[in-house]
Amino acid sequence: MIVKVCGMRDAVNIREVEALGIDLMGFIFWPKSSRFVVKRPDYLPIRCKRVGVFVDEDTERVCRIAEDYMLDYIQLHGHERPEYCSSLQGRHIIKAFNISTADDLAHTLPYEGLVDYFLFDTKGKSVGGNGEKFDWRVLNHYDGSTPFILSGGIGPEDRVSIENFHHPRCVGIDLNSRFENAPGKKDIKKLKTFIESL
What we know:
By secondary structure, the protein is of the alpha/beta class. 20% of the residues lie in helices and 24% in strands. The protein has helices at residues 11-18, 59-68, 82-87, 159-164, 188-197; strands spanning 2-5, 24-28, 49-54, 73-76, 92-99, 117-122, 148-150, 170-175, 180-182, 185-186. It has an eight-stranded parallel barrel with strand order 1-2-3-4-5-6-7-8.
C-alpha cells in the first residue's frame, strides 16, 4: 500500500516523517491553503517521492516549481481539464476528484489514460484538507482502469476501516489534517503508530 503524507513544509518535520518510511510526500503550492509552502524548506525528502499539489495553476508556474523542487509527481486538485493534463506530457500526474455520490465518479472518465493515479477526496468547503470523510461505499461504483489513492479525513481511528476496505484499484492512502498538531506540522507519534499498525 502506498502511504502519502501531504501538507508538509517544515524541514525538521519533513525529516521525521520521511524517516517513517512513507512512499509519497506532498507539498501544497496553492496560496489559499493553510499548508501553503511560502518558502522552500531547508530540507526536502530524498528517500520518498515528492508531490507538488496545485489548484487551477498556470502550467508555466507548475513546471517551474516542478523543476525547482525536483518533483516526482504533480497533483492537480482543481478543475483542470483533460487537455491541461495532456499539456504536462512527460510528467507523472495525480488527478484529484472530490467525491460525494456515485455520480461524481463519472468525472474521471475523460482522464483515463492521461494520469498515473486518481485521488478521491471528500467534497467539502475547500478543494482539500477539510478533515472529513466521504462514504467509501460509493467507490464500489468505480470501475475505471486508473488506480486510485484514498483520501479525505483519514485519521488514527480509521485503521480497521482501511483494512476492511477492498477495491481492486485502490493502491494507497493519503494522510494529512487528522495527523497534525497544527496546519503543516505532523504529529510523528500518531503517524508512526498508525503506519506501523498497517
